[in-house]
Amino acid sequence: MSGAFDTSAAPQGAAWRRVLVAFIVLLIVARAGYALVSPPHTETLMLDLDVYRAAAAAALEGGDVYAAHASGSALPFTYPPAAAYLLIPLAFVSRPVAAVGLTGLSVVALIIVVFLVLRRAAAPPFSPTLGVVALLSLLALTLEPVIGTLTLGQLNLILMALIVVDLLTDWRGRGILIGLAAAVKLTPAIFIVYLFATRRFRAGALAGGVFVVSILAGFAIDGGGSLDYWLRATRAPGFIGGVSFVGNQSLTGALVRLAPGLLPQPGWWWTVVLALAAIAGLAGAALVYRRGREELAVMCCAVTALLVSPISWAHHWVWCAPIAALLLTHCARLFADVGANAWTRSAAGVLPAAAWVLLFYLAPIWLVDDVQGRDLSGLELIVSNLFVIAGVMVVVAAVATVSVRGDGERGRRAGYS
User: Given this model, what pLDDT does residue 336 score?
Assistant: First the structure.
């Protein structure tokens, strides 16, 4: 296999790369084996797809998309009104066709994301070869947020691909896909601010324009439903689900697990804290961008969005996949160093990469029992918030990395500064 995982390099680096490839293959085989022997979770299979289809059918018939429920499910549609109309194609096909189509499209979206992120991160002599992209895409399919997205029939991988294609390719319509993603889910709207923070005003205006048009279209089609949605989204974001549920891996979820007395919603002061966290994350992403590492900047922005959103379910953390790909290829680069500090540098790269992959592979957050309204032990608090802790650490590490290494020269060569 060539590229980042080429094992024809110096003996020491080649040996370590073989270990890295073996580690990845072991995880893939173990997950596949577990999937074969474990009973399917039929109660959650394509659960969110059913919600989408019910809302799309209601939109098609001119009904209330927020009153529509899938057969046998009490889950409501929680996306902006325009999203229901964008999802109308799902109402024209049978459930099996919709499930197969959405799953296939999601897998393709994941492969595209891995390829584009690795291509942007590539530096001679490393490149995102077919073998590397295939191996890391297979690994990504074993990570719990990706599995959750595919199992539930969620849109997360497709929305992630829209954002990555918009930012990591050179197409002239930059901003349109981000605006479209924000029209479906609110969290991607942070990338509109990111575009302005990185001084790409035309793209930011284009993304913001698409988003605003989607809001106005929602009011034009269903004024009452739109007003109700936006009032709930701004005043009571917890309507999407239980804020303290361990599956909510956001700063707000972490806070209410730490202090259950703050339920049902923290006060206004917490809104200020989240705003400051968003500003800090966006400032860090902008700094990383100016240093010519937009693939890292996009990851910082995405993780910031997950952290500051009131609700970030575990399956929303699909951004763990491209981050894992970046960390693992970084390890492969370190293995090429056969100098005096090779072992130290390799360990410094391997440990964070392995920890990140295993965290989202094993998803130990689910080991913590129901946390609603009870005080957690110290260990339970740590385990139940591991995605949040890891997210904060990866943003800080990305900013520190470009600051210490001074990647500004790479940015100037690439035309970023």
Answer: 65
